[in-house]
Amino acid sequence: MAEVIAGELRLLRPEVRCVPELFAALLHPEFREIGASGRIWDRAAVVFELGPEASPDDPAATASGLRAVRIGDDLIQLRFDTDNNGRRAHRSSLWRRTGGRWLLWFHQGTLFTDSTGGERPAP
What superkingdom does the record give (predicted)? Predict the structure, then answer.
C-alpha cells in the first residue's frame, strides 16, 4: 500500500503534473476521473489539459487523512482530503496493479467547506 500512497502524493506535486510523461506514467491506460465540476475526464484529457496548467513553482496540495483499503489482490482504494491554497476536497482514488505496477485507474474529488460537510466521515 505504501507504493500507492507514494504514487498519489507524486500526482499532487506540480513538478510531476506539468511534465506529461511523468504525469501519464502514473495513470492506467483506462483512467477516468469525475472532476468537481461533474466533467468526466479520460487519461489523455487529464494529461494534456490539466497538466499544463501546473507550474513547477506552484505550491503542492497538502494531503491529510490518507486511508488505504485493499479491495482485491490488484485493487486498492485510497481516501483522503486535500487543501490547495484553501480549495479543499474529499478525494477517492482506485489504484490497479497492471503489469506489476500500481497505476491510478479512477479518481473523484468533491469540493467542501466547513459549512458543506468538512467534518471527516467515519472510516
Answer: Bacteria
Residue 117: count of CB within 10 angstroms of its CB = 11
Domains contained in the chain, number: 1
Neighbours of 55 (CB within 10 A): 10
Could you identify the residue written with the cell 459549512? 115
The Cα 51–Cα 64 span in angstroms is 22
CA 38 to chain centre: 15
DSSP string, 59-106: PPPEEEEEEEEEEETTEEEEEEEEEETTEEEEEEEEEEEETTEEEEEE
Query: In which domain, by residue range, is 55 found?
Result: 2-116
Flag whether the pTM goes above 0.70: yes
What CA–CA distance (Å, rounded) separates 88 from 8?
A: 16
pLDDT in tens, 28-75: 999 999 988 889 999 999 998 876 666 777 777 899 999 999 999 999
